[in-house]
Amino acid sequence: MEKLELMKTAVEVRKSIVTALHSAKSGHPGGSLSAADIYTYLYFEEMNIDPKNPKWEDRDRFVLSKGHTAPGLYSVLAERGYFPKEDLLGLRHTGFYLQGHPDMKHTPGVDMSSGSLGQGISAAVGMALAGKMAGKDYRVYTLLGDGEIQEGQVWEASMFAASRNLDNLVVIVDNNNLQIDGEISEVCSPYPIDEKFKAFGFNVVNINGNDFDEIASAFANAKAAKGCPTAIIAKTVKGKGVSFMENQVSWHGAAPNDEQYATAMEELKKAGESLCQM
């Protein structure tokens, strides 16, 4: 897919995120919006997948380690054709299959149930190791939050991944610099993130995670790296695409009201229209 089409698709994904959260009246917009460009590139360009066969044995795998940003994952899955977009209106509704955290048993396209922070990377490492042991060539991608990597299990899994030379594993850190209690540097600083992953034996790439050229270059770099896993440290803007949500910690876990929803959708509509004129 061309860059312009990816940008247009990302706007649609952001519209769906905001719409789903408005319908749910709860959820996590900030980290869903910050990672929307990464989700879009993964599902429309990078990953070898088949929406008509979500359990295809040789598909690439994705684990959303920061599972509370499920609205972002659900929105890109719907955009890619795994399930109808109108189902996003059922987000977090009692008994519906799109719950607040990803559920692999009930949601097409979800490869791992997640939400307990710090644990998703361990599942991804296990998938990557299983692929190596089975002689498969599928790749495994996992998205972590920068606040999430304050969890110790993240570094156990990283140590193991590097020691087993899992070059089929790509760890992406959504570095939007905000977690529920404030700036990550003030809560419990994980900086320098890149140097930590390097110390654990990773190939490391630093990028602007809201720039498709840099995202594409990073994933190409990851495929070229042999004998070690790759960590992509993606500097992003929390709440990206909705002006009043951008870089505001208050939008970590809050849904827009009717007026805020209308404002957000108008902004995203204009962003989409400007792309169509390019």
TrEMBL record:
Keywords per UniProt: Metal-binding, Thiamine pyrophosphate, Transferase
UniProt xrefs under InterPro entries: THDP-binding, Transketolase_CS, Transketolase_N
Residues of the Transketolase N-terminal domain: 13-265
GO molecular function: metal ion binding; transferase activity
Keyword Nucleus: no
Pfam families associated with the record: Transketolase_N
Record has Iron as a keyword: no
Cofactor field: thiamine diphosphate
Protein family (similarity comment): Belongs to the transketolase family.
PANTHER family, sorted: TRANSKETOLASE N-TERMINAL SECTION-RELATED (PTHR47514)
The protein, known as: Transketolase
Organism in which the protein naturally occurs: Eubacterium uniforme
